[in-house]
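Inverse folding, one chain.
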């Protein structure tokens, strides 16, 4: 059986990436990018709470660690791209 895609979760992720990009363009301090990444991680955990609750603990920990690593990498990348696009590098 195929899972139904969660469009709201995907849109939430895109909004946070756009926020990180805008923070880079505006030359906001790196702390703001960190706050955006933290908010994104909280939103990630909230929008996926049902799926995470049904997983065994080891699998949940692995998926969470991978997701948080990817969230951090993507946020820093788009913040940097935004800084470059804004001419702040």
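Residues assigned per position:
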């Amino acid at each position: 059986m195929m899972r139904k895609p969660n469009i709201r979760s995907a849109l939430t992720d895109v909004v946070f990436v756009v926020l990180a990009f805008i923070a880079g363009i505006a030359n906001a301090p790196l702390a703001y990018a960190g706050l955006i990444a933290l908010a994104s991680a909280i939103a990630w955990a909230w929008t996926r709470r049902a799926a995470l609750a049904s997983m065994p603990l080891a699998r949940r920990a692995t998926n969470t660690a991978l997701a948080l690593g990817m969230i951090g990498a993507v946020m820093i990348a788009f913040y940097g791209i935004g800084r470059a696009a804004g001419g702040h590098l």
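The chain has one domain: 9-85. The CA atoms of residues 5 and 11 lie 11 Å apart.
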